[in-house]
Amino acid sequence: MFGLKSTLKALVCGALLLASVSAQDSAPNVAVSTEFPNAIAGLTPNIVSGDTNSVKVIFKNTGKTDLKVHLIVGTVAESDDYNNIIRNLTAYKYGTTLKADGTLILPYAIKMEHASREVGLTLMADMIDSNKKHFPVLIYNSTITFSEPVQSWIDLQLIFLYVLIAGIFAAIGMFIKDAMAPETKKTVKKTPAMTPEEREAALEKMKVLDEDWIPEHHKKSPRVVKRRS
């Protein structure tokens, strides 16, 4: 069973290779280059995992007739075996005309979550000539490196989460502090008892204060008039 599967796979790959070679022999004169985001010359292009990475595909028509870029497709495979495909990328349809002796720049977005490591990337364009014949054009067939996205320190959700957690821990700390602190008893000051002399002096003082509002003519006792018999 294993030998049959291997034979079928070899036959299919061979047929695709022959078809690609024959198509390339009669393919239009097109030069293609790519520009990856934040690319550094001499280094493997970097793709950020989970982000939308916009790749510029630059077409140069060296022929004398107009062409049309129908669509661009791509695959991600193991770097040591491009037949071992990890994932097929999204196919983008354009239908854009590439003028004779002209240049055309089209964006191709790669968005895929993958662990940080090196993989193989293949990008192909399906083009149409003036006779409405389709031609495959190889855009990119080399390695790229996936990397993890850089976490930003300014993240409102994370800041809110940190503040919430800090508030919870502060409340727990205050509760434990109140529970462990000893109870303080309030001391009540006792007023010393007054001696009889002090009490009498205080009453006399209050009596004087109470009579201050009485008019002077009411304080004098009325005279008693004796009638003669």
From TrEMBL:
The keyword DNA damage does not apply. Residues 1-23 form the signal peptide. Its main location: endoplasmic reticulum. It is a single-pass type I membrane protein. The chain crosses the membrane at residues 156-176. InterPro entries: TRAP_alpha (IPR005595). Pfam families: TRAP_alpha. Keywords: Endoplasmic reticulum, Membrane, Signal, Transmembrane, Transmembrane helix. It is found in: Endoplasmic reticulum membrane. Is probably involved in a pathway contributing to genomic integrity. Belongs to the IRC22 family. This is Translocon-associated protein subunit alpha. It comes from Linnemannia gamsii.
